Protein: Transposase family protein
Amino acid sequence: MIDRVQDRFEVWPARLAADTAYGSAENLAWLVHEKGIKPHIPIFDHSNRRTGSFQRSAFRFEHKRDVYVCPGEKDLKRQHRNFATSRSGVDQDGFM
Structure:
């Protein structure tokens, strides 16, 4: 996105703000070392997590069974929901 903005608008930011989703070590290093941009982004770090949840890397995927297995050796179950309403409850602008 930064390259696109620079190409289209000829704008080279000196600082950049973003949310934690952009706070990986690789992304922060790229901003600083390759783009010369000072990031104002929280670091994406779950190493000191106190929520009792597992990190993504702790799960494994079993290709033969097409299932993820948690560190407690339990299969993760697939789950989804479908939301729908009848067209009679929707006005001409698409609002309910």
